[in-house]
Amino acid sequence: MKRIVALVLMIWVFSHLLHSQTVVRSFVHAGKTRSYRLHIPQPFPSGPMPLVFSLHGYTSDGLQQEFYSQFSPLADAEHFLVVYPDGIGNYWDVGFLPDNSDDVGFLSALIDTIAQDYQVDLTRVYSCGFSLGGYMSYRLGCELTDRFAAIAPVSGLMAMGVYANCTPSRQLPVMHIHGTADDVVPTSGLFSPSVDSVIAKWSRIDGCQAVADTFYQPDVFAGDSSTAIRYTYPGCADSTELIYWQIAGGGHTWPGAFPLQGLVTNFDINATQKIWNFFSRHRNPAPRPVTGISKVYAERVMAYWSPEAGGVVIDSQEPFSAEIIDLQGRSISQYTTKPAGKTVIDSQNLTPGYYFCRWSTAHETGIVKLIR
Which residues are CB-neighbours of 127 under 8 A, at least 6 positions away? Predict the structure, then answer.
């Protein structure tokens, strides 16, 4: 089983890299260095782009969340940015206990940071998350309603304090996805009210009717030991939506994702696609403006194959190191401490095909596809 998982992971990594670009960056917030993965859609679209936050669960990180949620390939197809932040100690301050990490402030600052380099459509910033990342998305919905257009927690609820004090500045669209057999974050609640209580609270906030319309998703994957039921609460104010996808028999998993051993994953729906379809219907009518923008889309490092130059061209605004990797993950050549500016790496000995250039500076790392 471990070999199969490793093989699937390797196939995913390289097939994903063939069609995408994800950079790893960091900045200091509240005295702490905070890191995140930012997926840049390929081909790069023109004009302002939506931005989706995909928040990892407890003990996980941004890299695992990128693999698990599979938002990056969808972002390429639908032309939006997706960010996978890292919580301190693989944890988010969701309101359980006093915490000095200031994750709410960090994630708000992350919007401003990304908007310094890319054209972010501030009316279309969204947050979803798995497990503890779902709890965090609820906290963002309560406390940063002026920054997020909609939220979609998966297998996560609301901490008691957040639930009691949640007074968003406007109605907020919410989609909740949860398995009835989740034994990590049970629907009855984990240091939190139950799913039913959370849905009822947002029904009141959004001015929706208390009785939902029910839709039974066709059970097209009978072997997944689960079914999907959608509850849509009608009549919400200001075109807001409240939707609850109940995964009958589903475990602590992300529907449609890579199956986790011993846990029931539903394949009648794809949570990532459902979330994006939901997000794409909603806008923030009065987003908080970003201040201090100094540039728009100014990638610090660009790498590409140039037949005219006779090799790989790396154009960096800072000193950098680089490595050429083949499809098997083998290092073909390495280059360290190159100066800022354009550097041509002689690659005439490479046979035609796909390669990757992994680069790093003092501030960030990234990997881009090369075609020889």
Answer: 52, 53, 55, 107, 136, 137, 140, 141, 148, 151, 152
Structure tokens at 135: 């709890």
Smallest CA-to-CA distance from 103 within 114, 122, 81, 87 is with 87
Strand partners, 127: 53, 151
Q: pLDDT tens-digit profile of 103-138?
A: 999 999 999 999 988 999 999 999 999 999 999 999
In the three-class reduction of DSSP (H, G, I as helix; E, B as strand; rest coil), residue 265 is classed as coil
What per-residue confidence (pLDDT) applies to 292? Answer: 61
Query: Please, where are the H alpha helices in the chain?
Result: 2-17, 62-69, 71-78, 103-115, 132-143, 160-165, 195-205, 271-279
Using alpha carbons, select from 131, 208, 222 the residue that is nearest to residue 177.
131
**pLDDT on residue 94:** 97
Asked whether the beta carbons of 65 and 56 are under 8 A apart, the reply is yes
In angstroms, the CA 166 to CA 23 distance is: 34
Tokens coding 369: 């596809």
| Range 187-199 burial, b when 16+ CB lie within 10 A, else e | bebbebbebeebb
Residue 314 CA, chain-centre distance (Å), reads: 28
DSSP string of 180-198?
A: TT-SSS-TT-SSS--HHHH
| Closest listed residue to residue 270, CA positions, set 142, 126, 152, 141 | 152
Vertex 139 angle, CA 48 and 112, to 5°: 30
CA separation for the pair 349, 334 (Å, rounded) = 14
Classified as helix, coil or strand, 163 is: helix
- pLDDT the model gives residue 277: 98
Which residue shows structure tokens 């974050």?
A: 185
Residue type present at position 165: N
Q: Report the length, in residues, of the chain.
A: 372
What lies within 8 Å, CB to CB, of 64 at 6+ separation is 56
- C-alpha 53/C-alpha 129 separation (Å) is 8
